[in-house]
Amino acid sequence: MIVRTWHGCVPLQHAEGFARHLERTGVEHARGIPGNRGALVRQENQGEWAHFFLATYW
């Protein structure tokens, strides 16, 4: 199995909108590619920033 990871961060006040965007563009896109075995998003808030971690499984 291969796991690809990605990390990004946005100001905390934009976290909700970015989470929706990441779900539509990252997760849904990856799940639609043949061979994909899943995708997982984790959000960690740290101070004024929201960190997003995306893992896709192949």
From TrEMBL:
Q: What is this protein called?
A: Antibiotic biosynthesis monooxygenase
The protein's UniProt keywords, in alphabetical order, are: Monooxygenase, Oxidoreductase
- Keyword match Oxidoreductase: yes
- The reply to whether Oxidoreductase figures as a keyword in the UniProt entry is yes
User: Which species is this record about?
Assistant: Klebsiella quasivariicola
Q: Name one GO molecular function term.
A: monooxygenase activity
Taxonomic superkingdom: Bacteria
